[in-house]
Amino acid sequence: MITVKNIYKQFDDFEVLKNINTQFEEGKINLIIGRSGSGKTVLLKCIIGLMKPTSGQILFDNRDFSIFSEKEQKKMKMEMGVVFQGAALFDSLTIQENVMFPLNMLTDQSLEEKLERINYCLQRVGLENTNHLYPSELSGGMKKRAAIARAIAAKPRYLFCDEPNSGLDPKTSIMIDELLFGITHEFNITTIINSHDLNTVITIGENIAYLQDGCLEWQGNKENVLTSDNQKLNSFIYAQPLTQKIREFIKQ
Amino acid sequence: MRLLLNALTLIGEYFMFLGKVFSVPERWKQFFKKTIDEMYSMGVGSLPIVIIVSIIMGAVVTIQTGLQIESSWIPKWTVGFTARTSIVMEFCPTILSLLLIGNMGSRITAEIGGMRVTEQIDALDAMGINSASFLVLPKIVALLIVNPILIVISMFLALLGGYLVALMGTVVAPYNYIDGITSFFRMYDLYYALIKTVVFAFVISSIASFYGYKIEGGALELGKASTQAVVTSSFLLLILNLIITQIML
């Protein structure tokens, strides 16, 4: 479980996160949703350790990340897998080398063990036979799946995804959602996903935190996200004509 | 006042960056592999431009020197001697290094900056890897090794360029040229030149990496950073050239 306690983050005079308190549950898909600029990515980066919160605590299974020594933080990061918005694959390396990268850098496994793990991960994300291709030779969806394969290669306990289906067509988006849901439950990973994709929210959101202007405005799950009375949440969820129609349908 | 503060902040950031870069590599095998790859791409990649520029530069220096020394009181070998001294002590180490800033420096800034813009550096940091050390240290070490080799090659080629001019026979006779370039040779001149190339290599690689690493934003900032890296490196290189010359000569 990941606990976020009284997190504030400020850039110069601008307060991006304001007193965020929440918990992300173990073995579940935890979503952080909100409009662009609401502070989702900053919160995720604070949790991963890429940004330091101005104040507050982030606890991984009750262990305070902020007071860890550099060595402990490094050990902690070995338990994390991260999928970035643009996949962030190393473009000078092949897909096999990309997925093998964390194993090369973080483990002492033999080449055979590493190859076995890589092939399993690539097969798990449906990218068999892409080992020797370069990222530039893959489509957007394939890049995201390769990034997921890299993120799970070192068997992480925590998986973080920053808008994993942004820029993808609806079908590929659903495929990515299903993949993340499957992986989370198969390996009992604590997954946190930043998203503003409503399909993701209503299909895989087991624990949802809604951010607006840097404040946590609502927390719930996919069962009650569509029926909440929270005005701010509803203004986000029912912003599109299609979702407004769904709302009218639910009311009827 | 604000300008001075910005400059001091930048210098502070640069030294903090170097502090991150100079840490013990996490995986020596990866470090050596990356260093060899960088040496190959920097060395082989720069060779064509080094060959062309050096031969032409040597030829021009010899012609200009020959035209200035047209007196029966001055021995004929003076042309070769003067050309060699200029080529070894100044033209090859400084002019070639300035040229390599445009070639290698901007490439380093674009490469590291591109990785920053596409979150590849964040990906390394998220894995718990010291991205500055992992990406930059092999580049610095590679250029510290490759730059002196390139400059020595350049010296030979520039002297060859002068010899080709001598073969034409209009400025100086070939035997007088050979006599000149082999006369009064001091090893100290070569040491001085090589020390300069090592210092310049550090400036080129570290400044270019620094500007690439600290990029915030997108493609526009990448272009700006490349220009800033080239301008700052060139300026520093000339200042350091003056300082080293004052100290060593």
Fold topology:
The complex is a heterodimer of chains A (252) and B (249).
Chain A: E1 2-11, E2 14-24, E3 29-34, H1 40-48, E4 55-60, E5 63-64, H2 70-77, E6 80-83, H3 95-106, H4 111-124, H5 140-153, E7 158-162, H6 170-186, E8 190-195, H7 198-204, E9 207-212, E10 215-220, H8 231-237, H9 241-251
Parallel strand pairs in A: 3-8, 3-9, 6-7, 7-8
Antiparallel strand pairs in A: 1-2, 1-4, 4-5, 9-10
Chain B: H1 2-21, H2 28-68, H3 78-117, H4 120-126, H5 131-168, H6 174-181, H7 187-213, H8 219-248
In short:
With 252 residues, chain A is α/β, with parallel strands linked by helices.
Overview features:
heterodimer, A: 252 residues, Rossmann fold, 2 domains, four-stranded antiparallel β-sheet, 9 helices, B: 249 residues, mainly alpha, 0% strand
Structural overview:
The complex is a heterodimer of chains A (252) and B (249). The N and C termini of chain A lie far apart (38 Å). Chain A has 2 domains: 134 residues, P-loop containing nucleotide triphosphate hydrolases (Rossmann fold, 3-Layer(aba) Sandwich), CATH 3.40.50.300; 65 residues, no CATH class. Chain A is of the alpha/beta class and 252 residues long. In chain A, helix 6 runs parallel beside helix 7. Chain B is an all-alpha fold. Chain B has one domain. Chain B is 85% helix and 0% strand. The longest helix of chain B is centred in the N-terminal third of the chain and has 41 residues. Chain B is elongated. Chains A and B meet through helix 2 and helix 3 of A and helix 4 of B.
Please provide the ordered H/E string of secondary-structure elements of chain A: EEEHEEHEHHHEHEHEEHH
Mean pLDDT of chain A: 90
User: For the CA atoms, what is the radius of gyration of chain A?
Assistant: 19 Å
Structural class of chain A: alpha/beta
